[in-house]
Amino acid sequence: MQVSIACTEQNLRSRSSEDRLCGPRPGPGGGNGGPVGGGHGNPPGGGGSGPKARAALVPRPPAPAGALRESTGRGTGMKYRNLGKSGLRVSCLGLGTWVTFGSQISDETAEDVLTVAYEHGVNLFDTTEVYAAGKAERTLGNILKSKGWRRSSYVITTKIFWGGQAETERGLSRKHIIEGLRGSLERLQLGYVDIVFANRSDPNSPMEEIVRAMTYVINQGMALYWGTSRWGAAEIMEAYSMARQFNLIPPVCEQAEHHLFQREKMEMQLPELYHKIGVGSVTWSPLACGLITSKYDGQAPDTCRATIKGYQWLKDKVHSEDGKKQQAKVMDLLPIAHQLGCTVAQLAIAWCLHSEGVSSVLLGVSSAEQLIEHLGALQPADGADSDGDRRAPGQQTAFQEVARRGRRDQNPELLPPESSFPAAASLSLRTPPGSRQSQGGPAHNKSRLRVAIGMNKAISYRSKA
């Protein structure tokens, strides 16, 4: 016998947004989210009887605002978080394939990079149908097939929008979403992807058509979740509302650019979506295509992305007035990174990872050594640092000003005193187990990076000699 339960408006208001998105959790008695003490997950009024059953329905307290549940991988030190408020666990650091796979680096180097990432706990690998005209997906698929890793042990994401030259091979029509994803699965040699992203919004496709197409590919087993990339907050909210209105599947995360010079969306828009509807964030380009590495000193090195064919726009940006101002700001971080025993790149990635609602930060690397360096910068320590080390207040608050406002201030005395910022928790900068230090790199295992996140979103960094 089928039982249908109608949720009143008051019921919906009383439940937290996390419950509406993820559903109730299993009770201690082994049910499917039903009353404490057992049963078969019957909802209120659908199987329980009398005051005893009603009294057993104790609401689960909501999670702390902004909290992302973290766990640490065995033997790797990698941290894992929920993708938004879904149940999918992803590594705090993911590996992207833009520019590198199928283009900048050889297939052998790509295999080395992917192997190092997987062995150090990275389980999120991102690609797109358009990267290197599909070669990135083919390269990734060939490596995964040769490695023979359990499919359940990693998360593959791809993005749909730019597929081919024909008018029907791009955009977010139902036709291209379905056919584009089938093409990606063929190149990846996989039965499904974990997440399919709509790679920017499409004004030519109705939102209902997009959401219905994404729901279809999930129901067909071609994908497990769907998300958005480069969408505005209003568009994400429209997709969510459309899904709720027609009993479809809403997006679980937004993939957005985020670094010291690109901050408004991550700081002003997405946190509200995370709290209201559970949409998380996967961020990319934490180093601004290499600008936040101190390797650009008024010119583009021969081995950087700016010298690759088709990336003249990046070279122009390096030589532009805005680019020179940004490089000057990066130079302000050099002495701070030196005192911390880390690189500017490590400092920038750690800063991105501590933004509210971020589930994972995608890295783009051209060698295994570069990946190891970045992984060594983002291994959080368990517990607080109790050795009482301190940096000069002027130096510390100067970096806070650079991190919070993205501008230079040559007079640290004009900045707020250290006491105006909240106490710091600790984040360790150490090399993952089994890896080697990159040549010329600092002693990552002896440094401490203190990170404080308060109501003013100030970030405090302190070093340990």
UniProtKB/TrEMBL annotation:
What are the NADP-dependent oxidoreductase domain coordinates in residue numbering?
93-378
Chain intervals with Polar residues compositional bias: 1-14
Give the main localization category: membrane
Pfam family of the protein (one):
Aldo_ket_red
Q: Kindly state which keywords UniProt assigns to this record, in alphabetical order.
A: Cytoplasm, Ion transport, NADP, Oxidoreductase, Potassium, Potassium transport, Transport
The annotated region (Disordered) lies at 1-78, 379-465
Q: Name one GO cellular component term.
A: voltage-gated potassium channel complex
MF terms from GO for this chain are: oxidoreductase activity; potassium channel regulator activity; transmembrane transporter binding; voltage-gated potassium channel activity
Specify whether Zinc is a keyword of the entry.
no
* Sequence ranges of Basic and acidic residues compositional bias: 402-411
- An individual GO BP term: regulation of potassium ion transmembrane transport
Tell whether Cytoplasm is among the UniProt keywords. Answer: yes
Gly residues bias spans: 28-50
Kindly list the places in or outside the cell where this protein is found, as annotated in its UniProt entry: Cell membrane; Cytoplasm
- Look up and give the membrane topology term: Peripheral membrane protein
Instruction: Tell me its family.
Output: Belongs to the shaker potassium channel beta subunit family.
Tell me the NCBIfam families matching this sequence: Kv_beta
Q: What is this protein called?
A: NADP-dependent oxidoreductase domain-containing protein
